[in-house]
Amino acid sequence: MTTILIVEDEETLRETLAYNLQEEGYEVLSAEDGERGLELIRTRRPDLVVLDIMLPRLDGLAVCRLVRRDAEVAHTPIIILTARGTQGDKMVGLDSGADDYITKPFGLGEFLARVRAVLRRAPSAASPVTTVSPSLEAGNLRIDLAGRRAYRGAEELQLSHKEFDLLVELMRNQGAVLSRDLILARVWGYDYYGDSRTVDVHIRWLRTKIEEDPSNPQRIVTVRGVGYRFEA
Predict the structure, then answer these.
(1) Which of 81, 155, 161, 227 has the most Cβ atoms closer than 10 angstroms to its Cβ?
(2) What pLDDT, on the 0 to 100 scale, is given for residue 129?
(3) CA–CA gap between residue 107 and residue 111 (Å, rounded)
(4) What is the pLDDT of residues 78-108, one digit of tens each?
(5) 33-52, pLDDT tens digit by residue?
(6) What's the angle, vertex CA 114, arms to CA 191 and CA 129, rounded to 5?
(7) Are 82 and 91 in contact (CB under 8 A)?
């Protein structure tokens, strides 16, 4: 059974979301502060985390960053909930490693649809990026598709599942210019609710892990007004 963890300090909202997720057939875990939420992520390994930003003891953005730095749970999909709806707030959430971002107030129908969409895109779901070829190589970068591991020389890179899928898509299309919309469709799926800035955020994050000088990228090159091109 798919397990979803809700980390939300507002009791009424937490219980409402839990009830509706249980009605959809999910197993639900709950936490009312960030520290307890992080503990449950590490010990119970949920299939998805629904994470509020404004939490006692440890805020949601800090929880998100700590999860992405922990190799054991780094691939856990995360949906952030917040009352902050500006573009800047959304970018901060995505920069912290969130897979999706929902602004309060929101409808339960939209919430459940986003949960289903993120779970479909999760690494455990069947995906063509893991079945076409056993590995990809470009210079000192190597990707083990079956094991969903990426290496820079002998060093294993700690990538979120979206960073991994993005790197696969770029390396599979070396030398070709991929538009942001095409990357969104192939990596996030046609049912993704976000916009093209999501791609820019993940590209910037990926560059910090594979480029010698992220401020002067040589591997993931920006093609102004179009998108990105991967160079070996």
Answers:
(1) 81
(2) 37
(3) 6
(4) 999 988 655 666 677 777 788 888 888 888 8
(5) 999 999 999 999 999 999 99
(6) 50
(7) no
Return the closest-CA partner of residue 101 out of 77, 82, 123, 73: 82
The answer to whether the Cα torsion of 31, 35, 38, 39 is positive or negative is: negative
SS3 (DSSP) at 152:
strand
Which candidate, 217, 230, 219, places its Cα nearest to that of 172? 230
Residue type for position 161: H
Alpha helices (H) in 96-222, listed in sequence order: 108-121, 161-172, 180-183, 197-210
Record the pTM: 0.60
pLDDT of residue 88: 62
Q: Are the CB atoms for 54 and 60 separated by under 8 Å? A: yes
Residues of the chain with pLDDT under 50: 125-133
In the chain, the domains with their CATH numbers are: 3-121 (3.40.50.2300), 128-230 (1.10.10.10)
Omega cis (within 30) before 105: yes
